[in-house]
Amino acid sequence: MSTLRNKVQLIGNLGNNPEIITLDSGKKLAKFSIATNETYKNAQGEKVTDTQWHNIVAWNKTAEIVEKYLEKGSEVAIEGKLTSRSYETKEGEKKYITEVVCNELLMLGTK
């Protein structure tokens, strides 16, 4: 059961082209967001689509795959773990970010 702790699986589409960062150490970092949609009927019987956006971070080889093959609109399946961090803006305001650190990536759809 310990393998189920902090595990996230998502299927969605990229909202923008990935941002690729090469660190001084040579490691690559890919940042992108994906949208997941859930459709349901409200109390009036109308079809409603709820879209959730998820921030994704991929490192090293996975980041290289993201850089080479993914673009805005690409459909992907992501497996990873949730991480949270915070930082302070220049104005002194504290900001919180929750991201999915991608361990596995599966490209879906057609090219």
UniProtKB/TrEMBL annotation:
Key word S-adenosyl-L-methionine present: no
Statement: the UniProt record of this protein carries the keyword DNA-binding: yes
Gene3D superfamilies xref list: Nucleic acid-binding proteins (2.40.50.140)
InterPro entries per record: NA-bd_OB-fold, Primosome_PriB/ssb, ssDNA-bd
A GO molecular function held by the record: single-stranded DNA binding
Any one cellular-component term (Gene Ontology): nucleoid
GO biological process: DNA replication
Record keywords: DNA-binding
Subunit comment: Homotetramer.
Name recorded for this polypeptide: Single-stranded DNA-binding protein
Organism field: Polaribacter marinus
Top-level taxonomy: Bacteria, Pseudomonadati, Bacteroidota, Flavobacteriia, Flavobacteriales
